[in-house]
Every structure is written in C-alpha cells, then in structure tokens.
Amino acid sequence: MRSWIFVVAISAFSFSIGSAAEEQTALERGDYGPLDKAPQTALYDYPIKVSERVYSAIGATQPPTYENAGHNNNLSFVIGSEAVLVINGGSNNALAKALHGEIKKVTDLPVKYVISENGQGHATYGNHYWKKQGATLIGHVDAQHELDEKGFGGLARMRDYAKEFAEDTELVNFDITFDDRYEVDLGDLLVIAKEYGSAHSPGDVTVLVPAEKVVLAGDMAFHVRMPPIFDNTDTALWIESFDLFADEVSDWTIVPGHGGPTDIATITEGTRDYLVFLRGEVEEILDEGGSLEDAYKIDQSQYKHWHTYDELAARNAGRVFERMEFE
Predict the structure, then answer these.
(1) How far from 159 is each of 66, 162, 323, CA to CA, in Å?
(2) Residues 6+ apart with CB under 8 A from 264
(3) Domain of residue 131, residue span
(4) What is the C-alpha separation between 161 and 238, in angstroms, rounded?
C-alpha cells in the first residue's frame, strides 16, 4: 500500500514539475539568450566596432528586465575628428553612464550630440545623463510628442523594473527637433538623421554615416526578434517607408534597432516580408468576413524562432486586423 502511494506521489510531483516548466515564459526558459552578457556593467553587452568610426553596444533581444537594466535596444556612437555623437540615450542614467565609460576607452573627444531613434523610453530616458554632460539632444518632432504624452508613465514603469539603475533619471525634452532630416558635422564626418516616413512608432528616424556606408536603422528594421506592432503603427505605410530606406542603403552595413549588424537581405526578411505576410493573412480573413478572434489564430509558426514571438505574435495580428478593417 505504501509503495503504491509513493508511486502516485512521485507521479503527481513529476506532473507538477512538468506543468511548471510548460508555464515558464520564453525569457525564463532562456530562449532569448543570457539575461546579461556583461554583469560588470549596467550594459547588457559591451560595444563592438562596426566600422572605423562607428560602434554599437548591441542590446538584449528580449523584454526589458532588471538583469538587462533596460538595455534591450542598440546604443551606438560615431566618432568624428572633433566630437562624438551617441545614437539613443538609453533607458536610464546608469546605462548612459556605462556607455560613456566605454566611449572614453576609445576616444578622449567629448560627446556633443545625442540623437534618439524615436520617443520610446529606451531611446530617451538616459538623455537626462547626457544633458548633464553638456550634450545637445536631438529628436524628431513626433518623438517629442510621444515624450509629452507617454513619457512620465513609461518612466514610472522603467523605474519599477530597473530599480537602482533608474536612480536620478528624469524626463528631459529634446534641445532640437526636426521634421525630415537633420545633419551633424562631427569634424570631417557628416552624420544624417532622416525620417523615411511612418514606420514602427511615431518619430522613427534612421541615422546614416555615408562616409562609412553604415546606417543605424533604428526601428525601421528588425531581425532576430519579432517586430512589435503598436496600436498606432500603420503597416502599409511602414512597408512604403522601408522600401525608400532599402533603396538608399542596399549595399551598406545595417545596424538595426535590435540585433547585431547585418545586411539588407536579412532585415528585409525580418521586417518587410513579415509585414507583407501578416497583412496578406489578415486580408484573407477580412475577405471571408472573419473576426478579430480569427486574426489571433493566424499561424505564425514559421516565425517561432524569433525572440519575443510569444509576447508579440498574436498581439501583432490583432492590431493589424483592427487597422485594416478601416483601410
């Protein structure tokens, strides 16, 4: 009798362990890689040299966590003969300070400019640190609107997960805003911030370094992780903007907003092709009189290997459906 009870107990325990494992998120299972690649610093990983004068600290391709300190996007910098330009202020002052420390290992030149790829927190909240260093903060006019509308709420959420990394981080506005493009001369090196049109989120800009044939694409382009589609993302316009972008930088080295340096074919597959696929599936549902529930059930399993698939796939489909209903 006791042995039977023991076997049942062990079976029940094994089942509960298996169920718990099944309930783990992709992040908890380690599907998105290490939680932190550089534990000695607030950065998720150290900067890599992309070209002679362009460097990028490649962020985690996972949601923001305490372990990655919110470094889940790419924080880049460009070195001229007179000054340094940073692309993305980081999620908080701790990240910005850590990136500054890495910049100082490469050059003694001052960081005079910071361009934020959009108005999202991981592109802007660390601007507070850079402002205190005397840098000029630059962003698209729509990115400033995003900060005005959502900045304080996002800052509170960042402080909640980042804890001590968020200490002394405050919301600051851009010093300079622009509509279409803005040029910065770093001393014998021209850098261009450019909006190609509506993309992932309001105020998305791409930073081009023509002399190096390197482009810091921002959230115009994705690979490794699934592109997030927001409730205000117009995927039809994003495809048009992407095509303009791709035509200009087809043979350049591309540093996307998330994931390491790559080429045009890779980010086309990771961005444009996905948007076209999702829109095609939703169009079929609409033509057949289907519902939002049908959109959530679209088979996106071909993209299951992408990071943040679990968090975004169904949500993306629903948001495309809701917008395409009125196109």
Answers:
(1) 10, 5, 32
(2) 246, 249, 250, 251, 252, 254
(3) 25-262
(4) 31
Residue with tokens 């205000």: 232
pLDDT tens figures, 268-288? 999 999 999 999 999 999 999
In a domain, 267, yes or no: no
Strand order in the sheet with 111-115: 47-49, 54-57, 75-79, 84-87, 111-115, 136-140, 176-178
The token duo for 283 is 């169009």
Summarised one tens digit per residue, pLDDT across range 65-119 is: 999 999 999 999 999 999 999 999 999 999 999 999 999 999 999 999 999 999 9
CATH number at residue 165: 3.60.15.10
Question: pLDDT tens digits, residue range 23-60?
Answer: 788 888 888 889 999 999 999 999 999 999 999 999 99
CA-closest candidate to residue 90, choices 52, 60, 134, 112: 60
Residue 300 has a CB neighbour count (10 Å cut-off) of 19
